[in-house]
TrEMBL record:
GO molecular function, one term: ATP binding
Protein name: ATP-binding protein
Annotated Histidine kinase/HSP90-like ATPase domain residues: 22-134
Superkingdom per UniProt: Bacteria
Region (Disordered): 1-22
Keywords, sorted A to Z: ATP-binding, Kinase, Nucleotide-binding, Serine/threonine-protein kinase, Transferase
Alphabetized Pfam families for the sequence: HATPase_c_2
Length: 142
């Protein structure tokens, strides 16, 4: 539950699964299904697939709502590292996420707080070519 900015896990030279979609509400389901398929194919346990689905839903929703204009590209990537599987969501905006503390009465500002509770490490980094990546490392129990 440590957030790191301007860090990014090193992807393997091969074996990165990637889905690029246009920023629109339907893209969030596409990203979720893509990640769920990858985790299911990897024979991870059901709890981790649930975490993966929740995390990508929050990150892709943020990319759509806060990090792009309608039709901009959003890219979802998943890959293995020695520390566990990583989910990345890339969007075109240089604006960085601003995680907020969980409150009992807030109606928004919960997505990243939820992610923070569910994964051991997540972060974000601006990309050299523009835009940014928000990533999460998931604990592998399989
Ligand atoms: N991909 C992004 N691009 C730009 N800003 C972002 C991005 N993701 C998050 N943010 C900023 O970080 C804030 C916190 O994000 P978080 O997901 O916790 O809350 P929210 O999206 O505002 O509400 P909720 O997720 O509860 O519907 C957002 O309000 C937004 O300002
Ligand atoms: Mg959100």
């Amino acid at each position: 539950m440590i957030t790191r900015s301007e860090l990014r896990p090193t992807p393997p030279p091969t074996g990165v699964a990637e889905l690029e979609v246009k920023s629109e509400p339907e893209s969030i389901k596409a990203a979720r299904d893509f990640v769920a398929d990858w985790f299911n194919d990897g024979a991870f346990d059901d709890d981790l697939v649930y975490v993966a689905r929740t995390v990508v839903t929050e990150l892709a929703t943020n990319a759509h709502r806060h990090g792009s204009a309608e039709g901009d590209p959003i890219t979802t990537r998943v890959f293995h590292t020695d520390a566990g599987p990583v989910i990345e969501v890339l969007d075109a905006s240089a604006e960085l996420p601003v995680p907020k503390p969980l409150t009992l009465d807030g109606l928004t500002g919960r997505g990243l707080a939820l992610v923070d509770l569910m994964v051991p490490l997540w972060g974000y980094a601006r990309l050299p070519g523009g835009g940014k990546v928000v990533w999460a490392l998931l604990h592998a129990r399989a």
